[in-house]
Structures are given as structure tokens and as C-alpha cells.
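G.,

No rush on this.
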Amino acid sequence: MMRRMIFLLLSIFSMTAVQAQQQVTLAECGGDTVTYVKRNFVEGKARFIGQPFSKLVEEWRTQIPVGWILFSNTGNWPTKDEDKYLVTGATLYFITEEEKNLRVMQRKMYATIHASFAPPYRHNFYDLCRIEEEDSLPLGPKLYECLKDYIVTDVSFLNAL
């Protein structure tokens, strides 16, 4: 009897874990973008860890646009100049920078995800900002080419005012 109960609990746990990793659509989330982002990319982050950033971006773009992208970087702490300001991750917003600023002023919630990258870090933060400006898009073709092969190590969720 005890073995059956343990087996049943393990089965339920494994089914729940698999469901959390399955892709969902925006429609399945009732059109709620925040719920979609949280369920699909954060609760389902195991699908993206160890994979190229392009996999996450392409899945993102199937349901919602990239409204704005920000980069985390090594900052100015490294002692070698060539190691300073190297991009270590990307934060994707489904709203534009202007929409985000308006929501902040109106004290309305917004959500985003941050994908952390595995070394080696190959691109300078300022270079990517220039490329983004040249593309005239938050994640245009030139910027996408620079970021697509970075390997994702973690995906986190930010829900902020």
C-alpha cells in the first residue's frame, strides 16, 4: 500500500513538472500577456536553459512583439579594458520604452523576463546599443545576429510598478 502511494505521488509530481515545461499560447492564458510571459518563459524555462537565445526569442515572437530590449553587462569592474561592459544577458519587454515609462508614471504594473547568458561574452554593451539604433528596431536583424548564439543559463521574471 505504501509503495502504491509513493508511486502515485511521484507520478503526479512528474506530470506537474512536465506540464510546467510545456509551451502555452497567449490564447490559453486568456490573452493576458503577463500570465503568458510568466507561464511560458519562467515556469517553462527548462526548455530554454542550455539552448541558444534564438530559441527563446523565436518563441517569444510567435505570440508577442519585442517592444524593448535591455542588456546586462560586466560593467567597469574587470581590470582589462577588453573585458569591460561585455553583455551578460538580455531583458525582453513586450511593451515599448515609452509605454513602460507611462506605466511607471501611472503606477501600473508591467512585466518582463531576463535571460542570463553563459560565457564567453563576445559583445560590448555600447556596440550593441549602436547596432540597435542602426536597426531602428528593439531587436532588429543585425542585433539578433549578434545575440542569437548566446547560450541561456537562466530565465527570470520581473513584475514591477
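When you get to it, here's the other one too:
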Amino acid sequence: MIAEIGRHDLKLGPLTNQTDGGGGTSNPSEASRQRRRDSLWGEAEDPERQTINRWFQKLTPVKSVPIKPAATFTRAAGLWKNDDTIGMKPRQAGAIIATALANGVLLEPNCLLPRRLEVEGIEYIIENGVGRDMVSNGMIEVHDATATREMFRLTGPGYAFVVETFGTETLIDAGLVVP
């Protein structure tokens, strides 16, 4: 119906809808897409999101920060293997580094890492998608499966990928691995 009448933001009609309807976000407007990009890696409107975006970008430059403010995290879901074709990615290694730094955990194979972390007095959580990807690709195993309060066990291959991604010297300098 929206497509037939036309959206104003696309200069196709009078409707102010920013999607094509259907209850999802199919074909959002460029303004909606930009707001989404800003919230994931740019200057989000939410000050808590701005804090974690800036902090995480110092660790590793990515286009989508995989950590969200816990106060805005509304979809409490556990982590499980969802797609074993997804390889280990620098963004995932960054999430491991972030929780290790914030929680004072020394990285080594089989170390336990909380899914939640605190930065500048604000509680954050590693998002569902990256958490499930890390379980799927074998970077982590879920040690305590309490939804949104999980503890991750860093696997040997996951540890090796983090070291390969960030470099031993950088991790030593950050106090995350012993020389």
C-alpha cells in the first residue's frame, strides 16, 4: 500500500512513512539509515552510546561497535551457535579485548570473560549478534549461560586470533597478556 501511494522522503508521494511497511525496516530512508549508522559507530544521540563508541574506536576502528549500553538492551536473549560459516573477525576480537580491559582479565586460553563490562561508570553488554558469531566460530564457549550475564571461556583458537589481530606487543603494553 505504501509503495502504491508513495513515500515523501523518496519524492514518490505524500506519505511520511520511513519504510515500505510490513512491520519491519524494509527499505528505510537515507535519514533512517544514517541515524542507524551514527548509533552503531558515529556520534549517536544517546550519550552512553557516544561514550562506548569513542572508547571502542580507540581499541579498533570498526564500522559497527558490538557493545551497547545495558540500560537500552531490551532483547534479553542467550547466546548459541547460529552459523558456523562465520569466521573470526577483528570486530569480535575487539569485543574480547574490551571486556578483558574493562574487567581486568588477563588473556590466555580458557580464561573467563564476562559479557558485561563497565566503562566510565556505565554498564555495557556485548550484543547478541557478535556473541552468537563468536560461539559459532569457536572463538568462545559459553561457560555460564545466564541470559545477558554469560561468562565466556576464550578458546585456544580464539586466543590465537586475538593475539594475531592485535599483536603480542600491543597486548603486553595493555597489560592483557604476560611477556
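The chain has seven helices and six strands. The longest strand covers residues 122-126.

Enjoy the weekend,
O.
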